[in-house]
């Protein structure tokens, strides 16, 4: 599935990267998912977030939320329920800078429910 991650609140708190992002992206990619970042602040902002998170090699693209992306959005991960309601996906607890945060692993579990994989 094409899985689109929101940036602010989902993967970053201000400039602080959410823990486990790289580890979770590796797992999702290994399960066959294509990972994208998108942001209402634009594709460039999403790309800078990818650098900060050190996941550039694990994602297929960075896009703005303000224009339709060039691929189908199959699943979204967002701290705001609005996009999740439109596209389907997982509403994640907003990241508050906690260095012990493990919430991104819930995305792996949620996607397993959808795809029926183990
Ligand atoms: Mg957000």
Question: Layout of helices and strands, plus pairs?
Answer:
Layout: E1 2-6, E2 12-13, E3 16-17, H1 21-30, E4 34-39, H2 43-53, E5 61-64, E6 75-78, H3 81-87, E7 89-91, H4 105-115
Parallel strand pairs: 1-4, 1-6, 4-5, 6-7
Antiparallel strand pairs: 2-3
Task: Characterise this structure.
The protein is of the alpha/beta class and 118 residues long. The chain has a single domain, classed as HAD superfamily/HAD-like (Rossmann fold), CATH 3.40.50.1000. Helices cover 33% and strands 22% of the residues. It has four helices and seven strands; from the N terminus they run βββαβαββαβα. It has a five-stranded parallel beta sheet with strand order 5-4-1-6-7, sandwiched between helices. It has a two-stranded antiparallel ribbon with strand order 2-3. It starts with a strand and ends with a helix. Bound molecules: magnesium ion. The site of magnesium ion has 7 residues, from loops.
Quick description:
The protein contains four helices and seven strands, in the order E-E-E-H-E-H-E-E-H-E-H.
Essential attributes:
118 residues; alpha/beta; Rossmann fold; globular; binds magnesium ion
Helix amount = 25-40%
CATH superfamily: HAD superfamily/HAD-like
Question: Tell me about the biggest sheet?
Answer: 5 strands, parallel
Number of strands: 7
CATH C-level class: Alpha Beta
Q: Any idea what the radius of gyration is? A: 13 Å
What is the residue-averaged pLDDT? Answer: 96
């Amino acid at each position: 599935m094409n899985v689109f991650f929101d940036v602010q609140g989902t993967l970053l708190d201000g400039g602080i990267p959410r823990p486990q992002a790289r580890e979770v992206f590796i797992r999702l990619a290994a399960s066959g998912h294509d990972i994208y970042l998108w942001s209402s602040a634009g594709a460039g902002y999403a790309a800078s977030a990818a650098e900060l998170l050190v996941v550039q090699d694990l994602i297929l693209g960075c896009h703005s939320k303000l224009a339709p992306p060039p691929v189908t959005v199959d699943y979204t991960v967002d701290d705001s329920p609005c996009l999740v309601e439109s596209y389907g996906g997982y509403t994640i607890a907003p990241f508050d800078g906690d260095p012990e945060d493990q919430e991104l692993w819930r995305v792996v579990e949620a996607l397993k429910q959808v795809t029926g994989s183990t």
